[in-house]
Specification:
The chain has a 6-stranded mixed beta sheet. Strands 7-8-9-11-10 form a 5-stranded mixed beta sheet, with helices on one face. The protein has 9 helices and 13 strands. Strand 1, helix 1 and strand 2 form a beta-alpha-beta unit. The protein is an alpha/beta fold and 240 residues long.
């Protein structure tokens, strides 16, 4: 792959001024890349069946489809606000949707992408919630809902998720992140990219092995670019 543009945590919602800015970013900066990857939490809440789409989602998904139409590979690593997106959108807005992580090669470098919500193994309440909320019985029940009921359910769920599990969100889990990175590096990955924590961090393990935690795009308009030679940079998008 020639190069890669990566963004995380846009958290777009209804009547959101950031939606227009992000669509502009995708169509202008994204069109220049060989691939565009989003590390999850694209929207503030997303139930991955097309009939549950909300109005603000349409322009964003259309932009990803436009990128695919121009030959840009589009990738999504599901975040903690994304539920079963692969079912409705892989092969549509995205070439690939990963439920946990995905790997690709940029030049000679092996890059692993993940949202980052599974970094902290000590966050047991979240891990239990994640397993339950994505389970087959729960999703089968959600799948029975008609469009309007599903959208109302999504809105209530988003409201309940605000402010949850504050203890595990209040500080960056440095030791857990280093362990998570070490496992990825043992698997042969040399660049590990995650979001989720809404802050910028770099963890290096020598010999060109790096874990980069991306800041959230929503508050920073920052994205990561991996060039063909494997070098990366965190750049800030400036709207026209």
């Amino acid at each position: 792959m020639r190069d890669l543009v990566v963004v995380a945590d846009t958290h777009l919602s209804r009547r959101d001024a950031e939606t227009e800015a992000f669509v502009e970013f995708l169509l202008r900066r994204g069109s220049e890349a060989a691939a565009v990857a989003h590390l999850g939490d694209l929207f503030n809440i997303w139930l991955g069946l097309p009939r549950f789409e909300m109005d603000h989602m349409g322009p964003v998904l259309a932009a990803f489809r436009a990128l695919r139409g121009r030959g840009v590979r589009t990738i999504l690593a599901e975040g903690n606000r994304d539920f079963h997106v692969r079912q409705g959108y892989e092969g549509d807005a995205f070439d690939e949707v990963a439920e946990t992580e995905v790997e690709l090669s940029v030049g000679a470098r092996r890059v692993r992408l993940a949202h980052g919500d599974l970094v902290n193994v000590a966050d047991r309440p979240y891990r239990l919630w994640r397993r339950f909320s994505r389970s087959a019985p729960v999703w089968a029940g959600v799948g029975l809902l008609p469009s309007r009921a599903g959208i109302r359910f999504a809105e209530r769920l988003e409201s309940k998720l605000r402010g949850t599990n504050v203890r595990h969100k209040s500080s960056f889990p440095e030791a857990a992140a280093r362990d998570y990175a070490a496992r990825a590096f043992t698997d042969g990955c040399s660049l590990l990219l995650v979001g989720h924590f809404h802050e910028q961090r770099v963890i290096r393990a020598g010999a060109g092995k790096e874990m980069v935690v991306l800041p959230d795009w929503r508050s920073s308009h920052r994205y990561l670019h991996v060039a063909a030679d494997g070098a990366w940079s965190l750049d800030e998008w400036q709207s026209a």
